[in-house]
Every structure is written in structure tokens, then in C-alpha cells.
Amino acid sequence: MTGRRVSRPNRVLVATAVAAAVAATVGFAGTASALGAGPAAAARAPSWHVVKTFSAHDTFLDDVIGLRGGVAWAGGERPGQTPVLYHLTGKTWRAVSLPGSPGTFVTSLSATSAANVWAALADEPLVARLTSKGWVTKSFAHGTDDVATDNIVTIGPKNTWVLAYDFATKSPFAEHFTGSSWARSPLPALVDCDCETHAVSASGPDNIWAWVFDAKLKGFATMRWNGRQWRVIKLPAHLVPAGQHVGALQMLAESPTNVWATADNEMAVGSILLLHWNGRSWGKVGGKLPKGQLAGPIAADGSGGLWLVGRTPTFSQLMLHYGSGRWTKTAMPKDSAGLVTVNALRLIGGTKTVLGVADLSPSPAGDTGAAVIEFGR
């Protein structure tokens, strides 16, 4: 979310610089047969592959949530530039439309269980909540003010935060849902990142983190809810070279003493910039860093490490793994359609399976759709 209208990047132009491929469809969450793959697929070593391809033109996916039991939600935009959610139960992905004007899309998802799933819409004062009667929207419109609610995080059925911005009054604010009512409060800074999802992350009710743009600092900083108040925590100056700037990407809070943030060097493509909060201060991950820059997406791997997406100095995309102080590169999925941009990664809690959503490369007739990818068997 930004202090300006959110607009989807020109992904066709991005595709001319980034080329990778998409794999043939296999199973979800380690159950290859669930989506029609044969027994041989189940015996493979864990790897990145495609779970589902949405081949309709002008289909984009920006976020995904996977839950134990083979349930998943992916959100974005369908043909006609209207918001859509895709729901996986068993073997079938089913499209669910949400209200929203043309150009609106589902920008972020958050869930703690199959019964507590939320979605935020870009460029609308709306969030959506899954109920026993289906998806129900909540509007935070204030008179004629232009309000955006792009970031949402839920910690439980009685604890959900929406971080929003009023363009008319130029004021950032939070809406807090307690299970029965909403309460509005001001924020000390504007939630912002060079991405459209995962600018906010939480590990518990007293550990919510966000990338923000601080007007006083005239740059990116971080903001934390400690259970009592929102507080801006600036980045130490030594994290980037003098005269250069951090471009905020995505956030991953695993515990009060273990928070990760992806960023890039806005002035040049150099070594990967991965930041870590140890409970006291932000530091930069060192060691033998890959050349290139992070593209944003980050997820825990279920074993104490991380999955990330990067770009080489020549702007080809690569999947990265970081664990025990070591970086390794892993092959991207492959298919004739090609994988352009991985927009989000998510660990399925209690497993080592990670889901992601991505755009497919364009054809002469336009883009070729979107895909859900997975790291698993």
C-alpha cells in the first residue's frame, strides 16, 4: 500500500527481461495424485513444480495461502480486470468473484485456519472475510474520501488488522477486528513497499511487522506492533552503501526475535540484501552472497531456513534457499509457457511444503495467464 494509487506493473515489459519456465502440473502439498499426476511423481525428490496453471489471458495472481488438509486460496485478477479468488478443495480449483471496480485485484491474503481466511483488495476501501455463508466484504469508506486497504493480517478469528490509507486526509490508519467489532486508530507511518503483497507479517498478537515510508526519515523504515502500540524502527545506516537507498520488498515475522525482510539496492544490482531482526536491532545477512538482487518473495522452509526469489545481474530469475548461513540456487520450474514473475511464497504451517504464485510469460496475443507453484514431492 502506498500514498498513491496502487497500479499493477506492466508485466509484459518485465517479461522481456526475465525468462524462466513452468513445469507440468503435479500434485498439491506432497499428494501428487490429487491433481492427476501418476505414482512416479510421488516418488520424486522435493523440487519446485507447477500445481495449477490458469491459462486464460489477463489472469494474474498476487498471493496464495495454503492450509493443511489440501486446502488453498490464491487471489488476484481475472479476465475483465476484476478481483478473483481461486479455491482448492480436493482436486478442483474453483473461481470465486469478489466485488470491485475494473482494475481492482486481490492484493493480499491472510489465514490461520480454513475457517479464518481474509483478503484485501487493491485500490478499494474493501476487505473480504470467509464466513459460513461465503465471502462477505467490509467497507472502510469515509464519506467521499479515497481510501485504500491493501494490507491485511489475521492472528486469529478475534484478531485481524487492516492497515489502510486515506488519500483525502493523507493519513495512514489501522482497523482492528476483535471478532465482533472494528476499531480505528492512527498509524505513525505509511505502509509501503516496492511490491503489492506481504508488506505486513505477524507471528503473534504482539509481533506484527510492516515496511513503511517514514516522512520524517524521508525513506523506508519498519514498523512494529508490540501488543500495546505501533512503533517505527528505522534501519541502521550501515545496511546500505553511503548515498544509496533501500527499496522495501516483503516481510516475514517468525517470532519476536526472528524477523526477516527482503530489500533491494535501488541504485544498483549488487549482492543480495536480506535483513534480519534479532529482537534488538536490524542487521544484514553476510557471508558469500549471490550476485544480483532479491525480487521480493520470501517464505520459511519449515526446517529453519528460507526460500526466496532473486534476479541475476542479467535479470533472469532464480530460486534461492538460505539456511545455516549458506546460500544455494535451485532450478525454477520449467515448461514451454515460461515463468515470468513469482509474486509470493507461503509455507503451509506444520509442513515443509511451500506454495507460490507467478505470472506466465506473454505470447504474441498477450499474457498467457498465471500459475500456482509448489516446493514438495
Textual characterization of the structure:
This protein has helices at 11-17, 39-42, and strands at residues 47-54, 60-67, 71-78, 82-89, 92-97, 106-113, 116-121, 126-131, 134-139, 147-156, 159-166, 171-177, 182-186, 190-191, 200-204, 207-214, 219-225, 230-233, 246-255, 258-265, 270-271, 273-277, 282-284, 291-300, 306-311, 317-323, 326-330, 339-347, 354-360, 362-363, 366-367, 370-376. The protein is an all-beta fold. It has one domain (11-376): Methylamine Dehydrogenase, Chain H (7 Propeller), CATH 2.130.10. Strands 14, 15, 16, 17 and 18 form a 5-stranded antiparallel β-sheet that branches. A 5-stranded antiparallel β-sheet has the order 21-24-25-26-27, with no helix packed on it. A 4-stranded antiparallel β-sheet has the order 1-32-29-28. A hairpin with a 4-residue loop joins strand 17 (219-225) and strand 18 (230-233). The longest helix is centred in the N-terminal third of the chain and has 7 residues, at 11-17. It is globular and about 50 Å long. It starts with 10 loop residues before the first helix and ends with a strand. Residues 1-42 have low confidence and may be disordered.
